[in-house]
Design goal:
607 residues, alpha/beta, seven-stranded mixed β-sheet, five-stranded mixed β-sheet, globular
């Protein structure tokens, strides 16, 4: 009898968040056999933590909205470093994907006319975010899960994939283990879709859940795919800062979208001082104008007033908060104050129920009466596996697909709030369709090498050969300190060089980690695998940040503070060659003339 289970599918989807579920549903709908692997329990994906809404130009609240403006906002937010085709497809298809969720049973908040309600978010010209209070991601997962389980999809829960398997240059399957008892499992598949999310656990303070250990980034890289834009790490401006046990827990941008005000310890509304010259005309210049906008939003009325400065893009707001704290104007616990207590308490509870309970239960703060203490938290990575926008397939590894946060290209140098959830369903759908089409075209099943499987098992068994080896948790702590202190919001050559050097040292330490006991219920064993993946992603981030000698979007170089037009022509691409990680410039695809013309049109008045 083999030392591992064997399952065969046409398409294997790794990750059961919004992108993975949508990919599995789409692939299954074409008639192919689909397996869905999730690291946690089904329904516990990190997508449930996305609160503010899903961005789609439905034009239910602001009739002037359209896909062209959504496309422009996305490109401008990404500082024009986005792959234009991703941004175009996303803006065009997001409305249909949201209406699809509605047909499948998603319960959205409603306008008086019964349409899906939409709210404002940073960087979006119009009120565009379809929402369910501040629990939108939870509703999305509930809907996709309920719909998906009836499609004949085989689900493998609490299962971690440790290696992608290949037949020559193309994908042949994946190997992994069940977290509960360490049983090994081999998946033979014609196509694999990576939908594993982000890399947040590489940093000390993050809004990301425990699953976000860069699994898909590392698996794709090790299989031969390129990673692009890895220097662009988004620090969400508002995470909880107190108490310490919940530091970094997300405070949705929806608070600011509903009129929340940012103030320093002196009571000053500081965001007026941090608006870049290029965008100053987009935002209110006085408290009175900002109040006019909020009053109109609360009343559900149109207004020509410009948006409050708190709705600037996330990279700008995060840097502003960082600067205020650094200058000694921060709150008691090292953040700033976010205040929505001036509004009617019942409206706050209705619009932001999760935030009300989160602060009440975890910090004993009533946000209807008292400001929240917030500060930047590592939230999202714009970089990921390079794939084709239309199909989701890696150009280097046939049969390998990716969607969601693990893929790169969609968001450029900075993601707009709300574009993550629409990204999941638009490109999850496309990757699922692409993988199914690829699998159907294959005339024969790929062959899995016994040698590859033996190597995968040996890699997993290795830490048990050193019962007195280095504790993997100690290495992860060192990694967290390295990334947070040297590759954080502001970067400089000296720090980045130290980070790259430190990461080489940690890679050597990782070879010496050891585990006692058995595989059953052994979190230290899981951490050994997570550490390997985190080190790959961290090195990719540090090397890319060192390579890009300019400041753009979420990448801020103190020693290169200006945005360089020449760098705007390139992505950074990470790949491995001769056993080492390499980085190079990769030319952005040329945008068609008809899309370029959109940027010559006069910007509309903000709603």
């Amino acid at each position: 009898m083999a030392d591992y289970e064997i399952h065969e599918h046409d398409v294997l989807v790794v990750g059961a968040g919004g992108a993975g579920l949508r990919a599995a549903i789409e692939a299954s709908g074409t008639g192919v056999s689909v397996g869905l692997v999730c690291k946690s329990l089904l329904g516990k994906a990190h997508t449930v933590m996305a609160e503010g809404g899903v961005a789609a130009a439905l034009a239910n609240v602001d009739p002037e909205d359209n896909w062209e403006q959504h496309f422009k906002d996305t490109m401008n937010g990404g500082k024009m470093l986005n792959n234009w085709r991703f941004a175009q497809l996303h803006a065009q298809e997001a409305p249909d994907r949201v209406r699809e969720l509605e047909r499948w049973g998603a319960v959205f908040d409603r306008t008086r006319e019964g349409k899906i309600l939409q709210r404002a978010f940073g960087g979006h010209t119009y009120k565009r975010l379809c929402h369910v209070g501040d629990r939108t991601g939870l509703e999305m997962i509930r809907t996709l899960q309920d719909y998906g389980v009836h499609q004949g999809i085989d689900v493998y829960m609490e299962c971690t994939i440790s290696k992608l398997l290949k037949d020559g240059d193309k994908i042949a399957g994946a190997f992994g283990y069940y977290r509960e008892d360490g049983r090994y499992v081999l998946f033979k598949a014609k196509a694999v879709v990576l939908a594993t999310g982000g890399v947040g656990k590489a940093f000390t303070v993050t809004s990301n859940s425990w699953e976000y250990t860069a699994d898909g980034h590392a698996l794709g890289y090790e299989a031969g795919a390129d990673l692009i834009d890895m220097e662009f790490v988004q620090f969400h401006p508002t995470g909880m800062v107190w108490p310490p046990g919940v530091r970094g827990l997300l405070v949705t941008e929806g608070v600011r979208g509903e009129g929340g005000i940012l103030r320093n310890k002196d009571g000053k509304r500081f965001m007026f001082d941090y608006l870049p010259e290029a965008t100053k005309n987009d935002y209110a210049s006085t408290e009175e104008e900002a109040k006019e906008w909020v009053d109109a939003a609360v009343a559900g009325k149109q207004t020509k007033a410009r948006r409050p400065p708190e709705l600037s893009t996330r990279d700008n707001v995060a840097r502003a908060i960082y600067e205020e704290v650094k200058a000694g104007r921060g709150s008691e616990h090292g953040g700033v104050y976010l205040d929505i207590s001036y509004q009617d308490s019942e409206r706050v509870k209705k619009k932001l129920p999760s935030m009300y309970h989160q602060f009440k239960d975890l910090a004993d703060v009533d946000i209807t009466k008292t400001p929240m203490e917030v500060g930047p938290t590592m939230h999202y990575i714009m970089g990921g596996v390079r794939v084709d926008a239309d199909t989701g397939e890696s150009p280097k590894v046939p049969g390998l697909f990716a969607a969601g946060e693990v893929s790169g290209g969609m968001h450029g140098a900075n993601r707009l709030g709300g574009n993550s959830l629409s990204d999941l369903i638009v490109f999850g759908c496309r990757a699922g369709a692409g993988a199914a089409a690829y699998a159907k075209k294959m005339s024969s099943k790929p062959t899995v090498s016994d040698a590859e499987v033996k190597t995968a098992i040996a890699d997993l068994e290795d830490p048990f050969s050193r019962p007195n080896g280095t504790n993997p948790y100690d290495v992860v702590k060192e990694l967290n300190v390295c990334m947070s202190s040297l590759v954080g919001i502001f970067r400089v050559e000296e720090d980045l060089a130290k980070a790259v050097e430190k990461l080489q040292e940690l890679k050597e330490k990782a070879k010496l980690v050891g585990i006692k006991g058995e595989k059953k219920f052994n979190p230290g064993w899981h951490m050994c695998r997570d550490l390997r993946h985190l080190l790959i992603a961290s090195e990719a981030i540090a090397r890319s940040a060192q390579f890009r000698k300019e400041s753009r979007g979420a990448h801020s170089r103190v020693d290169f503070p200006k945005t360089d037009p020449e760098w705007g022509k390139y992505n950074t691409a990470i790949f491995h060659k001769d056993g080492k990680m390499q980085v190079e410039k990769s030319a952005l695809p040329e945008m068609p003339e008809e899309l370029k013309k959109l940027f010559n049109k006069k910007e509309p008045a903000h709603a």
